[in-house]
Amino acid sequence: MQTIEQIQDFKGKYPKQIWSLFFSEMWERFCFYGMRGMLVFFMISELSFHKTEANLQYGATQAFVYAFTFIGGLFADKILGFRKSLFWGGILMIVGSAILATDPHQYFFLGISFTIIGTGFFKPNISTMVGKLYKAGDSRTDAGFSLFYAGINLGALLGGYICIAIGKGEMLANSIPEDKRWNIAFGLAAIVMIISLINFIFTQKSLGIIGLQPGHPLAEVKSKPVAKWLEYSVYVGTILLVPIIQIMVSKTEYTDYFMWTIGPLTLLYLFYEMTKVTPSERKKLWAALVFILFSIIFWGIYEQSGGSLSIFAAENLDKNLLGMTLDPNGVNNSGGAFFIILLAPLLGLLWIWLSKRKFEPNTLIKFGLGFIFLGLGYYVLFATKFFATVSGITSLNVFTLALLVITFGELCLSPIGLSIMTKLSTKNLQGMMMGMWFLASAYGQYVAGYIGAFLSEAKEGASKSEILVTYANGYKQLGLYALIAGLILIAISPLIKKLMQEVK
User: Fold this and answer.
1) Which of the pair, 75 or 504, is modelled with greater confidence?
2) Confidence category of residue 114, pLDDT binned at 50, 70, 90
3) pTM for this one?
C-alpha cells in the first residue's frame, strides 16, 4: 500500500488517482443533476404544484441536500472515514432513485429523502480525497480541482439533459411508453450511481491510505479505533432519519426552522474546534469562513438554473440553438456543464502556466472574478428581453451565451473553493470544512428558492411578454448584486491575505 508521501510525489500535471475519483464523481453527478433537473418541471406538470410552491420546494430540497454534506463530512472525520462515507452515501442514492423509478408520483418525497442523505455522505468526502492527493503548497492543486470539476460537469451535462428529455418525451419517445417515461428517467439515475460505486470499488486500492477510517492502523491521523457499534449506529440512525427528512422536506416551513438552526449550530461547533488548534491554524479557519460566507451570496444568485430559469426556459425560450432544435430545459440543465467540460481543463492548465511565470492570481482575486463574471452573465440574461417576439418568446442563443459567461464565474469560484478548503483546513477537520463549504451552497439554494418564488409570484396572471420582462428585470438586479459582492471581496482582500498566511 502506497504511503501518502508516495502518492503526493507524482510527476506531471495530475496524479493518476484523480482519474478514478473523476469517474466516480462523474456518474454520481449524473444521478444528482438528472434528479435536480427534473424536480421543478415534474412537480408542476405531474404533481400539480403551483409555480411559486414548486420553486420554494426546489429550494428546500436542494438546501437539505447540501446541508447534509456538513453532517456527512463530520461523520467521515470522526467515525466512518471518507471511503466508507462515500460508499454508504452511494447506496442511499441508489435506493432513493430506485424508489422514484418504481412510482415517482406516489413516493416522490420518500425517494428524494434517501437521495438527500446519500448525497450528504458522498459529495464532501470524495472532494476531500482529491485534496489529499496533493502536498501542502503544491501549485498544481487548483488545476487538479479544475479537472475534477470537469468530471462533475460531464456527469451534470449527461444527466441534466438526458433525464429531463426522457421524462418530457423529447428523447426516445417512440421507444418508451408515455406512462413509463418518468419511471425510466429516475431509474436511469439509479443505474449510473451503481456504475459510480463499482468504479470506486475497483480503483480505491490506488488511493493508498487516503480515506481510511479513523483508528485504522495506517490512517494518516493516529487515533483510537472506532467502536463497531458506533459505526453501525451511524448506518441505523441514517435509515431512521429518512421519515423525518421526508416530513421536513415536504413542508417548506420546516425547512425554515432547519436552516435557521443548522447554520448557528455549525458555527458554534466550528468555534469550539477552533479552541483546540494553534493560533496560526485558527487564522486560516477564519479565512476559510470568509470564503464560505461569500459563497452563500454566489450560490444564491447562481442557483436559479433549477428554479426560475427552469420555468423561464419552458415558457419563454425558442428551440433553436445555432440551427439545431433542442429542448430549452435540457440546455438550461446541461449548458453550463457543457461549457465547464470544455473550459475547466484549459483553465486549470492556464493556472499552472501562470504559476510557473509567477503571474497566477491568488484565490481572492479568482473569487472576485467569479462574482464579476456571474454578474455579467445575469446582465446577458436581462438582455434576452431585447430579442423577444411580441408573443414573449426569446432567443435560446442569447440565453446560452449567458450560461457561457456565468460558467467563467463558476470556474473562478467553485473548484477554487474546493481547493482552498483543503489548504486552509487542519488534517482532522478537512471533512467538516468541506461539509461547511457545501452547507454554504445549501443556504445559497435556500435563498435561490425564495428568489425564484418571488419572480414567479410577481408574474401571476400576466402575458408571456410581461412574464419575460419580469424575469429579465429580476436577473438584472441579481447581476448588480453579484458585481457589488465581487468588488467588496477584492477590496477586503489584504485583510484576508493576512489570515491565510502562506496559503495562496
Assistant:
1) 75
2) very high
3) 0.71
Residues 287, 483: Cα–Cα separation, whole Å = 21
**CA pair distance 413, 431, nearest whole angstrom:** 19
CA distances from 403 to 211, 387, 414 (A): 35, 16, 15
Nearest to 478 by CA among 438, 439, 442, 444: 444
CA distances from 402 to 91, 114, 281, 374, 406 (A): 36, 34, 40, 9, 6
SS (H, E, C) 443-499: HHHHHHHHHHHHHHHHCCCCCHHHHHHHHHHHHHHHHHHHHHHHHHHHHCHHHHHHH
At 48, phi and psi to the nearest 5? 60, 35
Compute how many other C-beta atoms are within 10 angstroms of the C-beta atom of residue 184: 16
Cα–Cα distance for residue pair 412/409, rounded to 1 Å: 5
> Which of the four pLDDT bands, split at 50, 70 and 90, describes residue 307?
low
Contacts of residue 471, defined as CB under 8 A and 6 or more positions apart, other chains included, come to 308, 312, 316, 381, 455, 459
Q: Please give the angle made by the CA atoms of 425, 241 and 46, to the nearest 5 degrees.
A: 105
Beta bridge partners of 325: 320
Alpha carbon distance 314, 305 (integer Å): 12
Each residue's pLDDT tens digit, 33-64: 887 778 878 888 888 888 777 777 777 787 78
**Residue 452 contacts residue 308 (beta carbons within 8 Å):** yes
Q: Contact 348/143 with Cβ under 8 angstroms? A: yes
Question: What gap in Å lies between CA 97 and CA 100, rounded to an integer?
Answer: 5
Q: Judge whether 64 and 442 are in contact, CB under 8 Å.
A: yes
* CA dist list (Å): 448 to 157, 170, 328, 428, 484: 21, 27, 20, 32, 18
d(CA 435, CA 443): 13
**Nearest CA-CA partner of 489 in 374, 345, 323:** 374
Average pLDDT over residues 73-101: 86
What does DSSP assign to residue 206? G
Which run of H or of E encompasses 321?
A: strand 320-321
Domains delineated in the chain? 12-500 (1.20.1250.20)
What cell does 86 get?
462515500
Higher pLDDT, 461 or 400: 400
Q: Identify whether the C-beta of residue 434 lies closer than 8 Å to the C-beta of residue 421.
A: yes
Looking at residue 335, its amino acid is: G
Rounded-to-integer distance, Cα 392 and Cα 317, Å: 8
Placement of cell 421543478 in the chain: 40
Residue 363, pLDDT > 90, answer: no
